[in-house]
Amino acid sequence: MHHLQNTAVPLIRYKTPEAEMTISDLQNDLCDSSSNVVCSTTTNSVEQSREHDVVHLSFSGSTSLSTRKQIHSCVKPFVCVVCDKTFNRSNDLHRHERIHTGEKPYHCFVCNKSFTTSSHLKVHVRRHTGETPYRCDVCYVSFTESSHLQRHVNIHTGDTPYHCDMCNKAFSRSGSLRQHKRVHTGEKPYLCDVCKKAFSQSSNLRKHRRIHTGETPYHCDVCNKAFSWSRDLQRHKRIHTGEKPYHCDVCNKAFSWSNDLQRHTRVHTGEKPYGCNVCSKAFTRLTYLKKHQHIHTDDKLMPCV
């Protein structure tokens, strides 16, 4: 005869300033219906819901029961005096206040960059260590942040949950949708403090600033030539490797740079996009047009030959 095991929820007690309580006591407080108030999980009965609550009650002794209950309640007694945002816990408020004060108490021991939270510092340090703890189960690409992995997974699933309400274009990331919307609104919130040129993306502003600073952070590991932009470095490297990734779909001739392929294609199409504004003669390349325009630079205009 088989004996059934006792599957009852263990009667674990926690000391609190108010009183000694059991999990069952707290379950009665947290969940009086089949819908869990912590994570919105729906179960078939109140009893199942109370058993599910045990998952949320596995916390360390350092966290008081009253604090834990407060996190799962709607009570947010800690208020920011600057923007009136409310929080469950005082330390959450303290972290938030750094947005207003600019305080960055966490410093990178490698490059001394500062951060407002320890978690942001932890992620940053992985850039120096090369640690990528979050790995894709499909293609095994690794990432420094879990959020980056989650976004990457959408490549495999094809999931595009973020839709533009103007053109219905869909995106796998909310940030991509925000950037896209600026195409419709014309918003350019990122302003260069030197020449006041505005940009729709912060990354474009960072790249633009190198025009003023002369910064060239991208170096060729063969000849040590330096570049302001990574794309210029990648193009330059083809001089050393001989790589020609751009192929003409008419004659299959290969080129190292896309603009060389574009110019070559005009041999087949007959396109001449560069027209002389004096005699209307047209050319396939801008350099050919500039050479031609010397004919017209004398005081007396000369006819085209």
Molecular structure report:
With about 300 residues, this protein is of the alpha+beta class. Among the domains are: about 60 residues, no CATH class; about 80 residues, Double Stranded RNA Binding Domain, CATH 3.30.160.60; about 50 residues, Double Stranded RNA Binding Domain (2-Layer Sandwich), CATH 3.30.160. Helix content is about 40%, strand content about 10%. The strands form 9 sheets. A two-stranded antiparallel sheet has the order 1-2. Strands 3-4 form a two-stranded antiparallel sheet. A hairpin with a 6-residue loop joins strand 3 and strand 4. Helix 1 crosses helix 2. The longest helix is centred in the N-terminal third of the chain and has 12 residues. The protein is elongated and about 80 Å long. The N terminus is likely disordered.
Structural class: alpha+beta
**Assembly type of the shown chains?**
single chain
- List the helices and strands in order: EEHHHEEHEEHEEHEEHEEHEEHEEHEEH
Global shape:
elongated
What is the CATH first-level class name of the domain at 104-187?
Alpha Beta
Write out the strand line-up for the largest beta sheet, numbering strands in chain order. 1-2
**Helical segment tally?**
11
Q: Which CATH-level-2 architecture of the domain at 104-187?
A: 2-Layer Sandwich
Number of strands: 18
Q: What is the average per-residue confidence, as pLDDT, rounded to a whole number?
A: 78
CATH-defined fold name of the domain at 104-187: Double Stranded RNA Binding Domain
CATH superfamily of the domain at 104-187: Classic Zinc Finger
Compute the CA-based radius of gyration.
32 Å
Distance between the termini: 109 Å
The percent range for strand residues is 5-15%
User: Which spans of ≥5 residues are poorly predicted at pLDDT below 50?
Assistant: 1-38, 43-48, 57-62
